[in-house]
Amino acid sequence: HPAYHIHNDYTYETGFIRAESELDADVMNKYAGKRMVQINVWRSIAGVVQKDPLAFMDHQSLDENDLVTAYIAFNDMNTGEKHRGEIFAVKQNPNQKWYFYSHIDSNEAMLIKGFDTDKSKAGFAMHTAFPLSGQNEHDTPRQSIETRTYAFFDD
To answer: Using CA atoms, how far apart are residues 51 and 139, in angstroms rounded to an integer?
Structure first.
């Protein structure tokens, strides 16, 4: 189901912890000390998105004092193991600027930054799904897939 709560998939602490749990130790050792960016690749798998498009906060409008740590629990899809973690939610602030992308087709993809070890860059992208004014309750429900990727950079 679309996530209707404004969030980022990691906090400053959990971004690196999650990478260590997802990536092979040899990979983490090979790229130790390099800039690491976690990016979700999101796309529709059922044609044009007619309902509940994605919205993203302009990171320049984020007041870090508005970040709230939220706790999550879910079962790992591969092992069934229970996982507990933290994500960022955000308090409402009239200074926030938002952009949304409607009618995204399955031949398009969104890249969503989840974590960046370079503190001089935007650390992440707060995002959500929302019911767009004028969408029809009979429109086809959104179906999508999201893949988590990691990139390492020489600075």
So the answer is: 6
Given a cut of 80, whether residue 106 has pLDDT beyond it is: yes
Q: Evaluate if residue 150 carries a pLDDT over 90.
A: yes
Q: What are phi and psi of 91, to 5 degrees?
A: -75, 150
* Spatial contact of 40 and 124, defined as CB atoms under 8 Å apart: no
How many helices (H) does the chain have, and how many strands (E)? 2, 8
Domain hosting 105: range is 14-153
Whether residue 125 is contained in a domain is answered as yes
User: Mean pLDDT, to the nearest integer, of 85-114?
Assistant: 95
The answer to whether residues 10 and 114 touch, using CB atoms and an 8 Å cutoff, is yes
Instruction: Tell me whether residue 7 is in a domain.
Output: no
Domains held by the chain: number: 1
Mean pLDDT along residues 65-80 = 88
Q: How many CB atoms lie within 10 A of CB 48?
A: 15
pTM of the entire predicted model: 0.88
Alpha carbon of residue 137 to chain centroid: 26
